[in-house]
Specification:
- It is a single chain.
- The chain contains 14 helices and eight strands.
- By secondary structure, the protein is mainly alpha-helical.
- The chain has three domains: about 60 residues, no CATH class; about 110 residues, Tyrosine recombinase, N-terminal domain (DNA polymerase, domain 1); about 150 residues, Orthogonal Bundle (hpI Integrase, Chain A).
- A hairpin with a 2-residue loop joins β6 and β7.
- The longest helix is centred in the C-terminal third of the chain and has 34 residues.
Length: about 350
């Protein structure tokens, strides 16, 4: 039923449990079901995403003409499902790019998009992943996306089982993004003094421990008294952080940043790609080719671990939702702390034995 107080293209209805729900419907666009109640800031954010064609994208011409049972047909359904639409916009772009590149690949003259979903077998998936070698990370990403796609296919009754689960991911050496050392932090600070955009960006990353995608959107509107408050783009986690002295000094030293702290040379907000490229340039200027924006997030978590902070305290700062995510960032710091404790216990035990022994030390 429609209500006049609702925004254009938004209507409310009672579901089978009698609970009021709201949806965005516009001709030529996919239907979007709101997760939050009208009038809340979260609802307004969803509405803006719908009006911009992000949450409720335009229906592609001819997409409904895909042959039934093909991957073209499955993908059309998947892109309109909560499985695909619930993650953040940035995540959706990455996921869709992976699937679209795979869809247009061909084998023996046939596009994968035109193949029948029911014919997919584990051996086919293994061959598809092998085509991406030696890029193991890319192959593992495709495996994850195909597994999610086939899980959706099982749920809607297009197939009876998920053949991707019978395959195994490739082992990837390394620990991901390099975590900045204290020497590297000092080198960057020496090259980029306070008052520069390079230093402000660095201090925001290090002293908030947030992802680059969130830092590039921060501005005076996120400052509440002596705190920075934000909703993370990726996880939607609400984070409230005290403004540390070093960050406060950097903010005060950087003139006229407007509604966004980190701006391009032309006074505009960085794009996601532009932000990463610019910070890469600033790191190279400081002679730090192994360092990155995300590595500063790991360095922030490492510092907290070395200070003896608990996982709960670190998660409250970084916005991580599970202990396993924090563990990946703090593993080295935890190992050092535990080895120090073990060494202290060993020496104490040896000293006690020596004191209780009648034997004289050599």
């Amino acid at each position: 039923m429609k209500r006049r107080w609702l925004p254009p293209n938004v209507s409310g209805f009672a579901d089978r449990h009698g609970k009021m729900r709201y949806r965005f419907r516009r001709k030529g666009h996919a239907t979007y079901y709101f997760k939050h109640a009208p009038g809340t800031p979260e609802f307004l954010a969803e509405l803006r995403a719908c009006e911009a064609g992000e949450a409720a994208p335009a229906i592609e011409v001819g997409i409904d003409n895909a042959a039934p049972g093909t991957f073209d047909d499955l993908l059309a359904r998947y892109y309109r499902s909560p499985d695909f639409l619930n993650p953040s916009e940035r995540t959706r772009v990455i996921y869709r790019g992976t699937l679209e590149r795979w869809r247009e690949r061909t084998r023996r003259g046939q596009r994968y998009g035109g193949a029948m979903v029911r014919d997919l077998q584990p051996r086919h998936v293994e061959a598809m992943l092998a085509e991406l070698l030696p890029h193991r990370t890319a192959a593992n990403m495709l495996r994850k996306r195909l597994s999610a796609l086939m899980k959706f296919a099982v749920r809607i009754g297009m197939v009876g089982s998920n053949p991707v689960t019978a395959t195994r991911p490739f082992k990837v050496e390394g620990t991901g993004f390099h975590s900045w050392s204290e020497d590297e932090i000092a080198a960057y600070e020496a090259r980029h003094p306070r008052g520069t955009m390079a230093r402000l960006t660095f201090d925001l990353l290090l002293w908030t421990g947030q992802r680059g995608g969130d830092v590039r959107r921060l501005g005076p509107g996120n400052v509440k008294s002596d705190r920075i408050e934000l909703i993370q783009e990726k996880t939607k986690a609400e984070v409230s952080l005290p403004i540390m002295p070093a960050l406060a000094a950097s903010l005060l030293a950087t003139p006229g940043t407007g509604r966004i702290f980190v701006l391009t040379e032309h006074g505009r907000q960085f794009s996601v790609k532009g932000f990463g490229n610019k910070f890469r340039q600033w790191c190279d200027e400081a002679g730090l080719p192994e360092c990155s924006a995300h590595g500063l997030r790991k360095a922030a978590a490492r510092r907290f671990a070395e200070a003896g902070c608990s996982n709960q305290e670190i998660k409250a700062w970084t916005g991580h939702t599970t202990d396993s995510e924090v563990a990946r960032y703090t593993k080295a710091a935890d190992q050092r702390a535990l080895s120090n404790t073990a060494g202290e216990k060993l020496l104490a035990n040896l000293a006690e034995k020596l004191a209780n022994s009648s034997a004289k030390p050599l």
